[in-house]
Write a structure and sequence with these properties.
There is one protein chain. The protein has 409 residues and is an alpha/beta fold. It contains 13 helices and 15 strands. Helix 8 links the parallel strand 7 and strand 8. 48% of the residues are buried.
Length: 409
């Protein structure tokens, strides 16, 4: 493995970093590395240095960079048809929706583009369902959410965020949400009422630091929703599509949601593809003209999505996540007391809580970059580990060894 090192005066990266600083909005704080090529679990920067990808685009690259079956599907479709808008039918949409519904065991699919769009769509569906089916008085529907959530950064979604960076100075905020404590079903029970349209929750909170709730949390939410005639919406945009060792992370707790939001890996790391999938009688409240997207369900997205579904249908990637995830968590767990305070997560997804007195998350990320491993901090003291599911055991050990060395110091 070629080892990365700090930028020097001959580095080409400086040119690109300067352009980003001057012309792009400063809404991200990326590591100072400029990637030019990638393949599998490896990325190469503009100076030819190779890095092991331990982030996988926040689960968008579950199948690694440029998976040949996904590239082939995209290339074939590029030679045929890329966009019709939804003004016309095309030959990829129906098969994509059928195959995704069959994969997830649901009835109907609403295709969109970004994860935030999927969540916004689920919110709209839940509200319309509450008025049309549950009989909630107009404009009084409420959706229960969890603190420390991350569902996107649109104005409606940041209205119920508890992250000051995501929320501050973007008001006035959208009403209709009740924030409860993540992992505490009793707080949901106290908040739920006849006006509750839905409970919206991440089965595992990624941005919060890969936080896994107590085993009875999701089952109790399911029972509360059933008792009060409300919908359960699981945001599986990061946790879904084999990341945790199951197709959907909520399956670990034996829970079925009424609606799921999917994204990231659904586009195979090639283009944005998202969807709301769920019950026919719920998604069926939408009628022509009430919701849409010019690019949602476009032919290129649907063709790539179908190739993703074929990969997931074999169960190979779920099995890889389970097997390699057990190895990842065992090795990270051995570091507790030696630079690591706690390890959270499931499958090939881990939040490594840095022990007090250790480096800040950003400092640790930069030290790992210098060793040729790329991951990213979250919540200042946590390293979020999410390598591609195509990674080998030896490659995984290479990254884990680097983490051990950085945190032990």
């Amino acid at each position: 493995m070629a080892t990365a090192h700090h930028l020097d005066t001959e580095s080409r990266a400086g040119e690109f970093l300067a352009l980003d600083e001057r012309y792009s909005a400063h809404n991200y704080h990326p590591l100072p590395v400029v990637i030019a090529e990638a393949d599998g679990a490896w990325m190469t920067d503009v100076d030819g240095r190779r890095y092991l990808d331990f982030l996988a685009g926040y689960s968008a690259l579950n199948f690694g960079h440029r998976h040949p079956e996904l590239v082939a599907a995209a290339t074939e479709q590029l030679g045929k048809l890329t966009l019709t808008s939804r003004a016309f039918h095309h030959d990829q949409l129906g098969p994509f929706c059928r195959e995704l519904a069959e994969l997830t065991g649901t009835d109907r699919v609403l295709p969109m583009n970004s994860g935030a769009e999927a969540v916004e769509s689920a919110i709209k569906i839940a509200r319309k369902w509450a008025y049309q089916v549950k009989g909630v008085p107009e404009n009084q529907a409420e959706i229960i959410v969890a603190g420390s959530n991350f569902h996107g950064r649109t104005t409606t979604i940041v209205s119920f965020s508890t992250d000051p960076d995501a929320r501050a100075e973007f008001g006035p905020y959208t009403p209709g949400f009740a924030v409860t404590d993540y992992g505490d079903a009793a707080s949901v029970e106290a908040a739920i009422s006849e006006r509750t349209a839905a409970v919206l929750v991440e089965p595992i909170q990624g941005e919060a630091g890969v936080v896994v709730p107590p085993a009875d949390y999701l089952p109790r939410l399911r029972r509360l929703c059933d008792e009060h005639g409300a919908l359960l919406i699981c945001d599986e945009i990061q946790s879904g599509l084999a990341r945790t060792g199951e197709l959907l992370a909520s399956a670990h707790d034996g829970v079925r949601a009424d609606l799921y939001t999917l994204g990231k890996a659904l586009g195979g790391g090639i283009l944005p593809v998202s969807a709301v999938v769920g019950r026919d009688d719920v998604i069926g409240v939408l009628q022509p003209g009430q919701h849409g997207s010019t690019f949602g369900g476009n032919p290129l997205a649907a063709a790539v999505g179908r190739a993703v579904i074929r990969l997931l249908s074999t169960g190979e990637f779920q099995e890889r996540s389970r097997d390699l995830g057990a190895h990842l968590h065992a090795r990270l767990g051995d570091m507790i007391g030696n630079g690591v305070a706690q390890v959270r997560g499931r499958g090939l997804w881990a939040g490594v809580e840095i022990a007090p007195g250790g480096p800040a998350g950003r400092e640790a990320s930069e030290a790992l970059m210098a060793k040729g491993v790329l991951c990213k901090e979250t919540q200042d003291t946590t390293l979020r580990i999410a390598p591609p599911l195509t990674i080998t055991r030896d490659e995984l050990d290479t990254g884990i060894d680097a983490i051990a060395e950085v945190l032990a110091k």
